[in-house]
Design goal:
single chain; alpha/beta; D-Maltodextrin-Binding Protein, domain 2; two-stranded antiparallel ribbon; 13 strands; elongated
Length: 380
């Protein structure tokens, strides 16, 4: 019995010792992990500091607020400011040297680049342009009991020019078999103010419906101010258009897709298919479009000529594409790493998804991201 008690005591002592050793080992391992994590965090800590100034397109305003906040959290010694003064003001501010980058709802024209000057840049260094903000424009409508419609560009053109005035028109019903459309007048709602959204919507119709987008016997082209000759109902700003369509009966309009809400939306005919707006389809039209003025721009200029009449599968052609613009070689060397860091964050998957959550933009494709990163790596 005594021997058995001693044996049991030895086992207990051994178990206790083993527990202590295990606990110590666990504590040491936890401390090592913590030390490694701390070291990694310190190694990853930002070394950037300074102030970066940008200005330009108000279309990027909400996304820029999110990008600035995210970048400054990761880089607490950096201050980034973006003044949404509009595309023209942004281009002018950048050219005058009052900002290090610009946001613009269009790329610089070739003759504008040639004329210069770009005071922020080393002379003759040239500029880079990246289509970093892509926003699908939805065609929205309010018809009781109908949540989606298929329409081609010719039908949309005739609706917005006042040639098609009733929802039972054969041009509409032929594309929407099985949809119960009412005998109801159509009220086309447009922006009453000068608008980049209008410019992109009308650019789409001018190129995708050349025969029906007509004013005074000729193709109406694209414009920021809606022609009074076509009538319809005007509304101030995106909110005004959305509210007017929402509160109306038989209304149809166009607005940034992020604001479509519960309204009915149109799938646009592209080739032989009808494509609803989506982030992926909006990004796809950018990749499917050719370079603007091929051979006349620098290697770091990714300006595109949107192919609004494309028949490429899975593309949505009614989009607003806004650019970021900067110098290939900065006159002020102190801003180079800030530009690389901030624009790099914007075009990153993380940055694009953050912008999408805040502003509803369509994240750029992996191919476009790769091209943008290559440009940024070469800045000086």
């Amino acid at each position: 019995m005594i021997a058995r008690k001693k044996a049991l005591a030895s086992v207990a002592l051994f178990a206790s010792a083993a527990f202590v050793l295990t606990a110590c080992a666990a504590a040491e391992e936890e401390a090592a992990v913590e030390e490694t994590t701390t070291a990694a965090t310190e190694a990853a800590a930002s070394t950037l500091s300074g102030t970066l100034i940008g200005a330009g397109a108000s279309s990027q305003g909400s996304a820029q607020e999110t990008w600035v906040a995210g970048f400054q959290i990761a880089n607490p010694e950096v201050t980034v400011s973006y003044d949404p003064i509009g595309s023209g003001g942004g281009r002018e501010t950048f050219q005058n040297g009052a900002s290090s980058f610009a946001g613009s709802d269009r790329a610089f024209k070739v003759d504008e680049i040639a004329a210069g000057p770009f005071a922020s840049c080393v002379e003759e260094a040239g500029i880079w342009e990246i289509p970093a903000y892509i926003s699908p424009i939805a065609v929205i409508f309010s018809v009781e009991g109908v949540t989606s419609l298929n329409l081609d560009a010719d039908t949309l053109a005739q609706i917005f020019t006042g040639e098609i005035t009733n929802w039972t028109d054969a041009a509409i019903t032929a594309q929407n078999d099985g949809v119960n459309l009412p005998d109801l007048a159509i009220t086309a709602v447009h922006r009453s103010d000068d608008s980049g959204t209008t410019a992109n919507f009308t650019d789409y119709l001018s190129k995708a419906s050349e025969d029906f987008w007509v004013l005074g016997g000729e193709n109406a082209g694209s414009f920021e101010t809606w022609p009074a000759e076509w009538g319809g109902e005007g509304a101030q700003g995106t909110s005004g258009v959305v509210d007017t369509v929402t509160n109306g009966v038989g209304t149809i309009g166009y607005a940034d897709a992020s604001r479509a809400g519960n309204l009915g939306t149109v799938s646009v005919k592209v080739g032989e298919e009808y494509v609803p707006y989506s982030a992926e389809a909006a990004a796809a039209i950018v990749d499917a479009s050719p370079a603007a003025n091929a051979g006349e721009r620098g290697d770091n200029d990714l300006a595109i000529e949107l192919d609004r009449a494309t028949e490429a599968t899975g593309t949505y052609p009614i989009v607003l594409v806004s650019y970021l613009v900067g110098c290939n070689d900065y006159a002020d060397d102190s801003v180079v790493e800030l530009v690389k860091g901030y624009i790099g964050y914007i075009v990153s998957e993380e940055g694009q998804l953050a912008g999408q959550a805040a502003a509803g933009n369509a994240p750029i494709s992996a191919a476009l991201r790769t091209a943008a990163v290559a440009i940024l790596e070469g800045l000086k």
